[in-house]
Amino acid sequence: QSMDSTLHYIHNDSDLSTNSSFSPEEERKSKVQDVVPQALLDQYLSMTDPSRAQTVDTEIAKHCAYSLPGVALTLGRQNWHCLKDTYETLASDMQWKVRRTLAFSIHELAVILGDQLTAGDLVPVFNGFLKDLDEVRIGVLKHLHDFLKLLHVDKRREYLYQLQEFLVTDNSRNWRFRAELAEQLILLLELYSARDIYDYLRPIAFSLCADKVSSVRWISYKLVSEMVKKLYMASTPTFVVDLMNELVEKFCRCHKWSGRQTFVFICQ
């Protein structure tokens, strides 16, 4: 009885604050499902209310964000409509720790929801995270390949233009960000055509090969060698020939010894 009265109070409160075009009754029906006790889901959804989080516990939104993929998996994609508004609320939370938690798990949620719901509901959130603080961006960067491979080919190609932006960070000393980018680019080679690799990924790889931090350069040498291998297997030999000519020109004939050393390491 105590729980029921609490939930009644919470729902009355949230219904008054809702800005939706639905009536309170319709809003309530959109959150109904039959997988778990409704009172349990209602309690979870009420905890993500921003005003409640500020007055009760500042960490509660972060814990809700951490649990959301598990809740989505339990309810199933047919009941995603129960969680959609809550997910969008958490994705725009003022605390970066909440957004960071969601950024690290968005690829898992994409697997649960499937390609249609991912394209409609997760891609806009993903795009928002790409422009967020570095602490949030690293979450999507670490699982960039896992997320992009779930998208349709045309949608996936749109992100080629944005990969260059990962070279720019809030703090230039954040070399792990660039190292992670190099690791992800190795995995992304399988998702793109030879032309896309040559036009978009090659310039980034060359930039990383000249990085000031040796750990970033080491991963980049592997990236370039994998790139050569991928382009060599392509039906058009032009790309791999041009890439190797550029390697010779840029590094083998470099007036600095470090550039010539880079060439040797890539060959190795």
Secondary structure layout:
Layout lengths: L1 H16 L6 H6 L8 H10 L2 H7 L3 H16 L8 H8 L4 H35 L3 H9 L1 H5 L4 H5 L17 H14 L5 H16 L4 H20 L4 H15 L4 H11 L1
What does this structure look like?
This protein has a domain at 34-151: Leucine-rich Repeat Variant (Alpha Horseshoe). It has 15 helices and no strands. It has helices spanning 2-17, 24-29, 38-47, 50-56, 60-75, 84-91, 96-130, 134-142, 144-148, 153-157, 175-188, 194-209, 214-233, 238-252, 257-267. The chain is elongated and about 70 Å long.
Shape: elongated
Count of DSSP E strands? 0
Q: Per CATH, which architecture of the domain at 34-151? A: Alpha Horseshoe
CATH class of the domain at 34-151: Mainly Alpha
Low-confidence stretches: 5-20
**CATH topology label of the domain at 34-151:** Leucine-rich Repeat Variant
Tell me the strand percentage band.
under 5%
The CA-CA distance between the termini, in Å, is 71 Å
Q: How helical, in percent, are the residues? A: over 70%
Structural class: mainly alpha
Q: What is the residue-averaged pLDDT?
A: 86
Could you name the CATH homologous superfamily of the domain at 34-151? Leucine-rich Repeat Variant
Tally of contiguous helical segments: 15
Largest sheet composition: none
- Report the C-alpha radius of gyration, rounded: 23 Å
- Give the ordered list of helices and strands: HHHHHHHHHHHHHHH
Organism: Promerops cafer
Keywords: Repeat
Region (Disordered): 11-32
Protein name: PP4R1 phosphatase
